[in-house]
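Purpose: get a first structural picture of the assembly so the mutagenesis plan has something to point at.
Setup: three entries, given in the order below. No constraints added.
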Amino acid sequence: MRMLPVLIRLAWRYLWRNHRRTIVMLSAISIGAWAMIFMTALTRGMVDQMITDGISVLPGHVQLHNPEYLDDPSITNRVSLTEAELETRYADAGFEAWASRVRVPAVITSERESRGVTLLGIDPIAERDFSFVDYDKVDGRFLESPDDSGVVIGAKLADTLDTEVGKRIVLMSQDPDNEIADRGFRVVGLFHANMETYEDTYAFIGKKTAQKMLRIGDTTTEVVFFGNDYRNVEPTYEKVAAAVDDSMRVSRWTEVDTYLGTMLSVMDGFMLIWVVVIFLALSFGLVNTLVMAVFERVREIGLMLALGMKPASILGQIIIESMMLLAVGLLIGDALAWLTVKPLESGIDISVVAKGMEMFGASSVLYPKLHMDDVILSNVVVLILGFLASLSPAWRASRYEPVEAITKV
Amino acid sequence: MTAVRCVDICKTYRQGDQDIKALDHLSIDIEKGDFVCLMSPSGGGKTTLLNAIGGLDIPDSGEVWVAEQRIDQMSKGQLADLRLANVGFVFQAYNLIPVLTAQENVEFVMQVQGVPAKERRSKSLAILEEVGLRDLEDRRPAEMSGGQQQRVAVARAIVSRPELVLADEPTANLDSRTSDELMELFTELNKNHSTTFVIATHDQRVQRYAKRLVRMRDGRIVDDIEQDAA
Amino acid sequence: MNIVLRLAWRNLWRHARRTWLTIGAMVFSNTLLVFMISFQFSMYGLMIDNTLQVFSGHMQVQAPGYKDDQKMRQVVLDVQPLAERLRGELDSETIAARGWAFGLASSEERSYGIGIYGVEPEFEGNVSNIPGLIKDGQYLGKSDAMDIVIGGMLARNLRVGVGDELTLLGSGLDGSFAAAVVTIVGVFESGVKEIDRNIAEMPLGAFQEVFYMEGAGHQVVVLAPTLNDAPLVERRIAATLPDNLVVHDWVALQPGLKQAIQADMSSAFFMYGILVILVAFSVLNTQLMSVLERTHEFGVVMALGMRPGRLGRLVMLETTLMGLIGFLLGAAVGALLTYWFSVNGLSYPGMEEMAANFNLPGRVYPQVSLLKTLFGPAVVFLFTLLAAVYPALRLRRLHPVEAMRTI
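Result (structure tokens, whole complex):
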């Protein structure tokens, strides 16, 4: 350990002895590091957005259903607890947000057209914070209470139905006895969403209104819960699960929307692979640089050995040199990534491929995100792999026989 | 007291398809404070002998004793420690670490030994003064002449006051005036600190400074005479 | 062998380890590029084929505006005669007429809103793969029977099976109330949730009767012999259409498809670009070192009368040789890897869930093709040569005397 200062000094000076080679290598490492982090920030931004959007549509980190509901989303498969019972169990359990709602398939009919929709009976006040609809950006107004007698539909659907704010539409579904349950509504608002499909799919009415129309008393079909981090839903899950028995099914968002759940883990895996691929592409150059660096100073290594330096110190010296090269390159790359990502964080408009992004489940504005965790992960992976890659040249350097090394011309 | 003792050492190298006997049953004792000159034509075995004494090379057979310790059976690490503590080296060329300044080169060995920074600094400056390089301490080897570089090498070899200094053709790359200066420096150090010097050379001028002249041929000692040094 | 070539070849192997490491960088990138590009384009091909074969076809004749609004009244009048005429004119069987309406399908127990296609049973199988995906019962027969085939998930949700009756409720073309009782003759499973849950097909004749279509429909679907022939077929059809009809190609019908491919391609090519640049730096480093360490040697041959330009060409030749080895090895390894996967298929954890969104199978068999194999390595080769230009040009600034003085 007491050798460390001298090894660091030697490594640093040797690094700049052949400054051209070092600069070429530093450029390569910087570009690689930049690409790693930039790409990660883009994907991370996209996946974050997708999942946040996706979770706000589901909605919730954790959901509570009748066990039959996910396979057969019918009004007969309701949550067996009444709202009053839910209230006593969950009101003070400390969730970020929670709400019970009615969600059933329905048919919406205007004077001219009919379409299938997902009918959502909600408490607009409870859902304000996590709804995928921005209440303030609704044409007309959003629902104001669970008793609201109006309906809010997507702007796209309104187009298709040839209807507008103030006009009447009919919603039709079925009650638990399989009788047609229908009711006329006045369209009070048109909402806009990041994705066109949402505007096509959802119709909002007041929860109490929905319960009356569907004749289900004060029961609901789903209860949704939010914790504070979509990546860590276990605490929420356990809190919800603790309060229910087998007659209810509690699911994490990753189980409700397997596409999103898979997306998250595939993207995490992809980012690691991307970091490793970049490193491998760099590693050839890195090892090459080290081999050359050792080769051109064989004699000096011999001299140091002859003067009484231990082979381990030679090994350390080469590895430190390699780590320094990587660290400086990574620092430059990190800085470049920061400089390029920061101005883009307000969003990159990629609406030219909006429909394509919708197929991925992503919106048409990309918000790159520089997560400290991702930056640290990529840097650490590069340093660790770099350390491993340097072992072989460094080991060779430390194995020289002083005599042979000195006499080598 | 004996500084170096070699007993019946042999060393054979393979060069191409030929075996070369670099050391052939050679024995020699060197007293502490002696100033020995090893003379031989190229390939006569003097460098091999020097390396064997310095523990850089291990003979095929025989015994090598340095500072009362048998070194031919030591591990690499032990040998490194021995060199660090007891032996100073001056080579023919490429003596210095090119990325370190004169002073840092001198400090290098002490640093490896773990001498505290303050002591290193004062010792290295003192020794650079002694070899006449006080003003050049911040220069790198590439910025110094061949003679100056060899002086730095000498300063480094003696800075930790080793009992034994081994020099392999120290004057080979120097002009005659510079090599005289270097040899005078050696003589002075030998006198002042009674450091043992073993110098391998075929430079005629160097011989004049030796107290003891050992001639070698084909790995054997052919002549061993005491003389009055110049 | 030419003497300069021999010299370049020998120079290359003076530092065999270094040369191999540089070639290694090329082979690594080339292998990855060959494999990734083959895989990627196979996916795109599958995505296009699978998506278009479900319903869209390569093009459709529709009323203007129908594509975006899908309104009942945006009709193609006399749709069957039009399809018949096009089949005759183009001498093709892969043309079929359709109508589409939204309706409420009710069984004893359940009701769901679904999309109902009216199809020509004898031609539908030529333009869509749904008729081939019947898992239970059979596809539609006569073109005016009150029969229906529905998706598997819809059947489960409605709790019905083959032989059961469904009540359809909707509105007809004139806005009047439309209702019919139809018999389920078949259940299909496409594997795509949206389709299996929301779609039913019935004979066009019956469809027109139920929804008061009076001979009208909404689309004529056309499948060209291959995707590449589509533009030509489209022009021929467009020329014969009356003013009140338009023909849309698949890009217009499925805008998401092309854009998804574009979005994926741009991120993929960004990554490929980075790989290529990293290899170029590797080569630059190696060649710069190889020039610098030979300064003395180059000084000598220049003193002997060799022109700097020739030395530059020697360095370029060395790089070319190195690049060629990387090119050949990389292309070969990449092609072999792709070939292995083309036989054994490729899948990764999570691929199945992801792939379903794009009408893709959970296991993909990438195809080896010459173009896709050579494209990546050729770009790498080009950048390899570019990277050697700077070291080669440095030689022009070399002065023999100074050069010989350096060690």
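Chain C has 16 helices and ten strands.
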